Amino acid sequence: MRQQDSLDSLEFIGMLKAGFEELGRHKDQVNALNVFPVPDGDTGTNMYLSYSSGMEHIGRLSADAGLDKLMAAFSAGLLMGARGNSGVILSQLFRGFQLAFGSAQRVDPFLLAKAFKSGVQTAYRAVSRPVEGTILTVAREAAAATELALKSARVSIGSVLDAAISKAEQTLAKTPDMLPILRQAGVVDSGGQGLVHIYRGFRMSLSAEAVAFPTFESEAVVYPPLPYAASELHGDGEFGYCTEFIVRAVEKRGEEAELEVRDAMQGHGDSLLVVAADDLVKVHIHTLHPGLVLEQALVCGSLVQVKIDNMTEQHHELLQDALREQLAVDGTRGATRDPERLSHKDTGIKKCGLIAVVAGDGLTAIFHGLGVDEIVPGGQTMNPATEELLAATERTGAEHVFLLPNNGNVILAAEQAATVSDGRVSVIPTRSIGEGLGATLAFRPDADIATNEQAMKDAVAKIMTGAITAAVRDTNVGEHAIGEGDYMAIRGGDIAFVDIARSAVLQRLLEDLCADGAEICTVFYAREELVQEATESFSKLSGSYPDVEFELQYGGQPIYDFLLAAE
Predict the structure, then answer these.
(1) What is the pLDDT of residues 141-166, one digit of tens each?
(2) Where are any strands of DSSP class E within 229-289?
(3) Residue-wise pLDDT tens digits, 336-360
(4) CATH number of the domain at 464-566, out of 2.40.128, 3.30.1180, 3.30.70, 3.40.50?
(5) 226-330 belongs to CATH 3.30.70.2730
(6) Distances from the Cα of 129 to the Cαs of 134, 136, 230, 403, 412, in angstroms?
(7) 0.70 cut: is pTM over it?
(8) CA angle (213 as vertex; 212, 219 as ends), nearest 5
(9) CATH says 332-462 is which class?
(10) Which H/E stretch holds residue 470?
(11) Residue 395: beta bridge partners?
(12) Quick one: 7-205 is in which CATH superfamily?
C-alpha cells in the first residue's frame, strides 16, 4: 500500500471510482440485509444508483478539471440522482466533503479527516429525526476515528482511511444492539454496510496504479414513460419551448451564482427552475424565445448541455392522447373524476398542483382519476430520484406543488426536492398509498397553500392502512417466527400477524380495521385471481359489521397482494 501524504484531483477521483466499484460488487448483499422478509430490499441499489449519478456527472468534465470542479459535479450528481433514504443521506455525506474541500486542489490527511466530519454534520442536518444504529451512526463514528488518527506519529491518507474503516466496521457490528429490529432479524444496518464497502473501496484505490479519468455510463433504471406536460397549460404559441441547460458561472459560486442566473431568467418565461451546485447552475424554463434566454444566460457564464423541446408542436398530438387517456381512466374500476375538482383546467395556471409517487397501473389510474397532475412511478422497490421529482413539479405548471411520496423510503428524496425548489414544493409525508389517497381526496387545486396543507394532513391522520404480502425467507421479527411463504399483515410499518393462509390474514386484518372504528374499508388487489378471496372475506364480515362499507379496487401494485385503506 502506498503511504501517500496527499492526493491530487485525479487520484481522489480514482478513490471515488474505486468506492463506487466496491459498492457495485456488493450491492446485492446490501439489498439482502432487509429487516422484513419482503422482496423490497433496495438499499444497495439506491446507494449504487445515487452514486452512479455522481460519477456520471464527473465523467462529463474534462480531464484537466480541478478538484473543486470535480467535487462540485460529483455533489450535484448525487443530489439530483439521490434515491431512497440511503441515497439522500449518501448525497449529503459527500456534499459535506465538497464543502470541506472548498477550493483546495489537493487532499492531505487533515483535509480528508475534516471532510469526513463535515459530511456527517451535513447529513445529520438533512434528517429531521436521525435514528441511531443506521448509516448515520456508522458515518459519525468513522469520522471521529479519523480525527484521532491525526494524532499518530505517522499520518497518511492510508492511515486516516484505515482508522475510518476499522471504526465503521466495529460500529456496523454494533448496530443490532442499537436497533432491536436489526437484532431480531439477525442483520446489521444495510445503509451502514453499504458505506463500509465504499470506504473499503477508497482504501483499495491506494494500491492501484494511476487511474485514467473516468468516463461513465450509469446503470440506469428503466421507468415507464411519463406523460408530457399537461397540454391544457400550453396553448398555441404560449411558452412553446421547454428549454434546459447548465450555466458554468465565471466568478460567482453556489447561491450567488444561482441568484445571478435566476435574475437573468426573470420575465423570459414560466415554469422556471434554477438549481446550483458550486459553479454549475441548472436551468429549466418554458419560453417563447429560447435564443434570447440562452443569450441572457451567456452573460452569467458558459453554456453546457443545451436541450430545447417545442411543446407547441407537440400540443395537438398530445391533446388527442390525453383525451384517449381520459376515456380510459373514466372507464377504470373505481376511478371517478369530479368535474368541480378539475375545473382549473379551463382557467389556465393553477394555484396548487399535486404529484403522487405510485406503483401499479390500477392505482395510477385511480390517482389520475382523482385529479393528480403528475404520477411519478415508484414505491417500495423503485424509489424515484430527486431529479425525477423536481421534473414532475415543473410539468404541473402550478404556482405551488404538493408532493405525496406515499412511501417512507421516498420521503427524504421528496424533502430534498422541496429544499432545492425555492419554496415552490411542499411535502405531505404520506407513508402509504392509503394515506396518499386520503390526502388526494382532501386536495383542492384552487384553494390556497395553507388550506390545502392543513386539509391534507388532517385527512392523512384519519386514515388506517394495512398491507399483505408473502415472506421471501425464514426470519424472526419481534414475536413473530416467520417461514418462507408465510403471509404477513403489516400495519404502521410493523408486522401485525402471520399465517400460512392469505385469506386468514386478510380477514383478520379487515376485522382489526373494523374494530378500530373504520366506516369504509377499501381493498386494492394486485391480480384478478385475488378478487374472489377478497369478496369472500367481505361476505364473512358484513354480518358482524353491517355499518361498514367494503370496497374492492384493482391496484396492480407490486410486492403486496393486498393494500388496505380505512377511515
Answers:
(1) 999 999 999 998 789 999 999 999 99
(2) 241-249, 270-277, 280-287
(3) 444 444 444 444 567 899 999 998 8
(4) 3.30.1180
(5) yes
(6) 12, 11, 36, 20, 11
(7) no
(8) 105
(9) alpha beta
(10) strand 464-470
(11) none
(12) DhaL domain (1.25.40.340)
